[in-house]
Amino acid sequence: MSTENELVEVFLVPGFLGFESLGGLDYFIDVEDLVKQKLSAPGITVNVYPTEPKPAASLYRRAARLAEEVADHHSMDATSVHFVGHSTGGLDIRLLLSPENAVERELKKKAGGDERARSVLDAIQKTRSATSVATPHFGSPIASLALRLDADLIVRRLSKALERPGLSVFLAKVLDLAGLATSLFSGLPRGESFYDWITGDVLSGPPEKIVEYVQHVAADTGALRNLTQEGADLANALLIDRPEVRYGSIITGTPKPGWFVKTDDPLLLLNTAIYGRVWRIVAKENPNYPYSPLSQDISRIHADDFESGYDVGKLQIDEDTSDGVVPTASQAYGTILGVFASDHLDCVGHFPHRRSDGKQVTGWVRSGAAFNGDRFELLWARVCDFIAARQEVRSAPHQTAMPASARKL
Asked: What is the reported pTM?
């Protein structure tokens, strides 16, 4: 296939509670530059667009929002379009691309006199790949847990509280105390603790942006119901793969957390303790709505890579393995591109490293995955190889196809 004067578009779709950027924190850290670097070639222009979702809205509303983002950026001159979704973002993509879904029907109604609707339909017709990263295609118990704990009610109350005068001053003092405690007890160089990372990035932006984000979350938490195993069962019964689109998945998981983690950072220690408890909850499958029946394939693919010397990390995979948020067995969809030792956010750049702009990232937890820069680059190289298959570059090492509809009945 000729690669002369090609315009390739890649849309990056964040997951549940996601954002394009919040304060100084990007959702996809260093991913945009890495994708451009690996896909660019003579005669090929690559445009990568991180998108801004409705953070916690239902899959339908998130997909409709994704259509708006596509309309904002898509060029009719594009020769191919590709979507990469992390976590819930992978489900948004499947819904947007599903033929004759409600979003597409609405776009077709408007297409006669609406240039934006025509633009989105053009992008959908030119889509050649849809890649999911750590996506709960078969649901996750954490969504059911959040519903049982009335997480949506808690967020609504927090949103109301943030509107009160003086609360921001109080929170600032609390954060100052947290920062003081961190500096006293961690012994870490200033700027290298979890507290410093969050305050230096997220909380460095205007406070009203944080309040606005929380209000967006509180306004619509419909995704919690969609992401249960029962909700995913319904989605899989209704969504249809677009025939001309190649579907692939990156699968993540971490070792079973121990009861002790070595870190000098007290806030990171607290996060990791919470992570360990959540990991065990996520490991509990609902027997009425089982995950993808591919644990053996997933384990074999990981073992093949590991034994071949690829840095995919050490990982024992069984029905209980998860990345702390999504069960590993729930993530398989289409072509399995790789299975990596990674927690739910490592894979999008939230692991301890120095960013391309020189800023330090601490990561959110110490999950035991030992994720690093080499693994990050390999993971996204697999994604880019899958995207570029129509541009005649090498395919990902593993093309173990799974019928998109495969699941236990």
From this structure: 0.89
